[in-house]
Design brief:
This protein has 534 residues and is α+β, with helices and mostly antiparallel strands. It is built from ten helices and 29 strands. The chain starts with 11 loop residues before the first helix and ends in an 11-residue tail after the last strand.
């Protein structure tokens, strides 16, 4: 229900940017990082992004308070817009995990009363309530300074040892009374789910002497509660209430319409759900037991990408890996920012490969990737690297391998985040190099067609398989290149009208390359009948 007060226009691109910024430095450094160290790094990254004039936020927002839950799983921050609009944002970040894992984490089999909303008759999931409680009770991290010290007004520091509600009250006490302050509560994914609860909780508080108007705008939020909770949220007095979803994002369907995703993704783009995916979605949906979850209607529920024009063309084949990768793409901050026409928020460094994937401590190697900044640090698994130099363009880091043992992921961390672990970023102490398939060229065709497989850890005697079928005429050209001829198409379980997509794996000794969408090969229909050797 909208208030009759002066309306506020939709600021979805700005609020989605503020929601995405909450994911800054969400992962602790692999070699170890205290809660305070991670909070300081997150604060540095968030402050930098809020000051970036190229983002939709325009560089006018000031960070006023930052809180982490005790296990670092959830984060929230408060920022104030210094452009004269007297806007405040409360931005919530939920647990960082894969989308399907996020849904399983919500513990929707049982419900509890949402008494923070002012009534014992409002039901929310046990998992959503636990996440909300962590955010609402988190205190600012001791040792993280305020935006300024020794000053008055909105530039004054908010005491760090305060809960979110206490910090908001302190900020409202010093911002101008005119125009009336507007508090926007926002979040993406689980952060959006928690934001729905947090906004209702904040509405129930008494705010004097400078009461604000409240806006609730969420993105990709799964459902927090039952009909009683949806009715409660819809009945509150919002200056703005919007719920933004990508029409082909699985997470907002949880838990009101999750089984709809079993029909995805539409032909011909794909990827269509495999039997394994359909079973997985069915099992996740059963976690609700008999609870009927309902999304708040909102004044302006907005659905983007209704015709599935926005999708990742790398993940279009009918495989479980492609489906789950497309789910992650559709749910990402990047996709929501794109659909809203907002610039991308820097999300941390990415490692694309190593100049060598095996060796000993004290040897030198080059880490290739993107987003490497002067403040970047390097870890070889749980061991910090102490000797390295950066490329000024942010494309490589030359490092001296620290002493270690086993096979480890080489990852880079800066104020924006930590690079994800990737197969080509693995390093084996003492060798042999990890066996990895990085590409298959061409990635489609017929039986007997010659393909080139690139990766690492290849050696004489390597076996190449297309699913379970051994390739013909395998030739190991080097430790990074193999050529082979495609075996006949495996027909077991293949749909007659589909091209069959399989993983290409390389086995050297006891080691077999891990599977991923980058190693896939798609058989053209002709291959089922024996193929064309040209």
């Amino acid at each position: 229900m909208a208030t009759s007060a002066q309306p506020v226009p939709s600021t979805a691109p700005v609020l989605m940017t503020l929601a995405a910024i909450a994911a800054t430095a969400a992962v602790a450094r692999p070699s170890g990082e205290s809660r305070l160290e991670q909070a300081l790094r997150a604060r540095s990254g968030i402050t930098s992004l809020l000051q970036d004039p190229t983002l939709a936020t325009g560089g006018t927002w000031q960070l006023k308070w930052l809180g982490l839950s005790p296990d670092n799983a959830n984060l929230a921050y408060i920022a104030w817009n210094s452009d004269g609009s007297n806007q405040i944002v409360v931005s919530v970040r939920g647990t960082v995990s894969e989308p399907l894992d996020t849904m399983e984490d919500l513990d929707v089999g049982t419900v509890v009363p949402f008494t923070a909303g002012g009534s014992a008759d409002i039901a929310v999931s046990t998992g959503a309530m636990a996440a909300f409680t962590q955010v609402a009770t988190a205190r600012g991290i001791t040792g993280v300074p305020g935006a300024a010290s020794g000053s008055d007004g909105p530039d004054a520091a908010v005491p760090v040892d305060a809960t979110l509600a206490q910090a908001l009250a302190l900020l409202l006490a010093v911002v101008p009374p005119s125009p009336q302050p507007t508090v926007h509560v926002t979040g993406h994914s689980l952060g959006g789910c928690v934001a729905t609860m947090l906004a209702a909780y904040l509405q129930a508080q008494t705010w004097t002497p400078n009461p604000p108007r409240f806006a609730l705008v969420t993105f990709a939020a799964p459902t927090a509660g039952l009909q009683s909770f949806a009715d409660h949220v819809d009945g509150l007095d919002w200056i703005l209430h919007e719920r933004h979803v990508n029409a082909y994002d699985v997470v907002p369907l949880a838990w009101s319409d999750l089984l709809e995703a079993r029909k995805w993704y539409p032909h011909p783009q794909g990827p269509r759900a495999t039997a394994e995916v359909e079973l997985l979605l069915t099992e996740i949906n059963l976690l609700t037991r008999d609870n009927v979850y309902v999304q708040p209607l909102a004044d302006s529920p907005v659905s983007w990408n209704p015709s599935y024009d926005w999708y990742n063309t790398l993940f279009i084949h009918k495989t479980t890996a492609d489906f789950t990768a497309q789910v992650a793409f559709q749910h990402s901050n990047f996709s929501y920012l794109y659909l809203l026409g907002a610039p991308r928020v820097p999300a941390g460094p990415v490692v694309t490969g190593l100049s060598r994937t095996a060796g000993e401590g004290g040897e030198q190697l080059t880490i290739n990737g993107t987003g490497f900044t002067p403040d970047s640090v390097v870890d070889f698994g749980p061991v910090a690297c102490t000797e390295f130099v950066h490329d000024l363009e942010g494309m490589w880091i030359r490092a001296v391998v620290p002493d270690g043992v086993g096979i480890v992921d080489v990852r880079v961390t800066n104020r924006f985040g930590t690079s994800p672990a990737v197969p080509l970023g693995r390093f084996a102490y003492g060798g042999p190099a990890p066996v990895v398939v990085a590409s298959v060229v061409p990635d489609h065709g017929t039986a007997l067609r010659k393909v080139t497989i690139e990766g690492s850890g290849f050696a004489t005697g390597a076996a190449v398989r297309f699913k379970d079928e051994l390739a013909y005429d395998v030739a190991v050209e080097s430790s990074t290149v193999i050529t082979a001829k495609v075996p006949p198409r495996p027909l077991d379980g293949a749909d007659a009208d589909d091209a069959k997509t399989v993983d290409v794996t390389v086995t050297v000794g006891v080691a077999t390359s891990p599977t991923a969408p980058i190693d896939e090969f798609t058989y053209d229909d002709l291959s089922a009948a024996g193929g064309d050797p040209s």
